[in-house]
Amino acid sequence: MSNQSDIAVVGLAVMGANLALNLADSGYRVTVYNRTTSVTDDFMSGEAAEKDMVAAATYEELVATLRSPRVILMMVKAGPAVDQVIDDLAPHLDEGDIIIDGGNSLFTETARRYESLRSRGIRYLGMGVSGGEAGARHGPSIMPGGDPEAWPVVEEMLKEIAAIAPDGLPCCEWIGEGGAGHYVKMVHNGIEYGDMQVIAEAYDLMRRGLGMEPAQMAEVFARWNEGRLESYLIEISAEILATTEDGEPLIDKILDAAGQKGTGKWTVIASMETAEPTTLVAEAVYARIVSSDPERRARTADLFDTPTAPIPGVTVDDIESALYASKIISYAQGFRLLQSASEEHSWGLDLGTLASIWRAGCIIRAKFLEDITAAYVSKPDLTDLIAADFFTDALKDALPAWRRVVTAAATSGIPAPAYSTALSYFDGMRSRRLPADLIQAQRDYFGAHTFERTDRPRGEFFHHEWVDGHGL
Question: How far apart are CA 111 and CA 17, in angstroms?
Fold first, then answer.
């Protein structure tokens, strides 16, 4: 057994601790460090006591335990803490050493750190990790980006601790230079927000609209998990709804105020900057914001008596179709965003590969991703998922039920923002003409912003003197 470690893990919260154990189980000697030494002591006296691990009390000690080139995985909270760890570590490192940020850092911050450390000869990776506690322990989906020269050094190690997809491939592959890895993880998390919202809306429609009890809905979700909606989130939704406490459904005791950590918001902001709408993710973010103030909602409910009625003419199967169609739109929007960002930043993202590494380990793992992977494999130049034959047919089949659900939800007073915005996006994208002609005319009227004409080639702009003196 070597007396030098293969990798160090800085930060022993849930994700860091479990990744350290995963690395040790995969045959690597691991040095661990936590700013609070009692956390390190507790970790080393627990499951780690049986592993090939060593604890470090200082960064100097940590660096001294590592073989060259040194590999250090930071699992600390995104933001200033990352910069602080880098500032504390860097003076002790040599040219060619590698720092990996495995947290949910904003991709622009990762790009900045990459450039700064590269100028000092230190190789930097921004690595998305998805799968929660269980994934980190037994195999997450891993999305590494940053310094291409660092990837060959850590590739084998990262692939060995990653989840394994149904075809036997590890759910880990090189994403791209700079902030590419964290960008992809950001969009993954945005899609995750959307997945959770479309599932929550199905739950609400069944509960308030169809009058179903949690145990009945648990059976529905369990059945859905045996079909095209098979996924981790559908699976755990069935388990959650079947869980009782003191003989009563636990779900009924959980306050309906959802939290968030920012990656969904970042996705929406990035989509605006790239001019690729992620409307479903946006609605999922706003739905959490609306939920977060139950006291305000209660005051509003006292002002506006809007009791929900049984949703007319809608079945559980209709709700499943609306969920599935909305999910297609959400992923189509997310992959369009990834493609546009790849072109803007020259990352060369392989969208089929991205779908494939999300098939296991991560929170959005689903049978659905096999279909997305297949779509990009069969047509590598695919620019929009809804144009893939499989998804085009699925949307056509789901459309009547999807419209029934959205209409019935609105009529009954049950909010379904994700289903509604997904349908509006779909209708907008299949419209040969939209009312933006009037908007552009208005902009030219009050601000002389010009417009293009239907009877002239694209790229030619015109101004009309609508009414003298009315411009602002």
Answer: 26
Structure confidence by residue, pLDDT tens digits, 94-143: 999 999 999 999 999 999 999 999 999 999 999 999 999 999 999 999 99
Distance CA 83, CA 61 (A): 20
Question: Are 282 and 194 within 8 A, CB to CB?
Answer: no
Question: Cis link prior to 400 (omega < 30° from 0)?
Answer: no
Backbone φ and ψ for 248, nearest 5 degrees, come out as -120, 150
Do the beta carbons of residue 386 and residue 426 sit within 8 Å?
Answer: yes
> Distance (Å, rounded) from C-alpha 150 to C-alpha 69?
10
Contact assessment for residue 192 and residue 363, using Cβ atoms and an 8 Å cutoff:
yes
Residues 202-218, mean pLDDT to the nearest whole number: 96
State the pairing for strand pair 248-249/244-245: antiparallel
User: Which of 148, 140, 151, 137 is CA-nearest to residue 188?
Assistant: 140
Q: What is the pTM of this model?
A: 0.94
Known catalytic residues? 185, 192
Decide if 190 contacts 281 (C-beta within 8 A).
yes
Contact 28, 94 (CB under 8 A): no
